[in-house]
Amino acid sequence: MITRRHFIATSFAMFSAPVAVPAMAAASTPAQWEMWDQQVTPPGFDPATSNPWGINPRYLPKIVETRQPMRPGDIHVDAVARFLYFIQDENTAFRVGVAIGSGNLYEPGVYEIKVKKKWPSWTPTKQMIERDPASFAEFANGMPGGPTNPLGSRALYLFDGGRDTYLRIHGTPYPRSIGARASSGCVRLVMAHINTFYDAVPLGATAHLYPAS
């Protein structure tokens, strides 16, 4: 059984080039995606050192070794340490800091990534609107993609069998939330960080969200 203890850190290293995987279509255009990507990517971006957001340096991307072989393409979220691991090959992973759901909104489990979107639109769920109408009611009909959209630059959609859980692994316009319990249930990353490995995540990959305690 895989647990959150199966990862150990190694030194900073160059990130391997992502494998291109087609993303699902979004309402915005590729020209807009490119423009927005430039807006959210720091000049001279180095994943291991660039930190204009002022997040804790421990949450910057890093290549680590795993304690046992794991399936390339899968994602593991250590909710206690607030790290996401994207498995690159059987023994190495791309590790990066995340924010998770606040209170009891985080839902650990094993999910399938069935949809991927660049700069997606966003619509709050009925439960979100009922829980906090002041924050979400105005977006009941949806919000188009863009740098201020809560799903940010990239989103991986998590399914349980054929059911959309409405849980996402996604970029965020609130990078200072990284390391905290801050979302409505999703796993958040700095937009420039999720952009680094998004293309390499295959549809059908498994996302393991471990308990937060």
What layout of secondary structure does this protein have?
Layout: E1 7-9, H1 30-40, E2 62-66, E3 75-78, E4 83-89, E5 92-97, E6 100-101, E7 109-118, H2 126-131, H3 133-136, E8 154-160, E9 163-172, E10 181-183, E11 187-190, H4 191-197, E12 206-209
Parallel strand pairs: 3-12, 6-10, 9-11
Antiparallel strand pairs: 1-2, 2-5, 3-4, 4-5, 7-8, 7-12, 8-9
What does this structure look like?
This protein has 213 residues and is of the alpha+beta class. The protein has one domain: Beta Barrel (L,D-transpeptidase catalytic domain-like). Helices cover 13% and strands 31% of the residues. It contains four helices and twelve strands, in the order βαββββββααββββαβ. The protein has helices at residues 30-40, 126-131, 133-136, 191-197; strands at 7-9, 62-66, 75-78, 83-89, 92-97, 100-101, 109-118, 154-160, 163-172, 181-183, 187-190, 206-209. The strands form two sheets. A ten-stranded mixed sheet has the order 1-2-5-4-3-12-7-8-9-11, with helices on one face. Strands 6-10 form a two-stranded parallel sheet. A hairpin with a 2-residue loop joins β4 and β5 (92-97). The chain is globular, with a radius of gyration of 16 Å. The two termini are 17 Å apart. The relative contact order is 0.24. Residues 7-26 have low confidence and may be disordered.
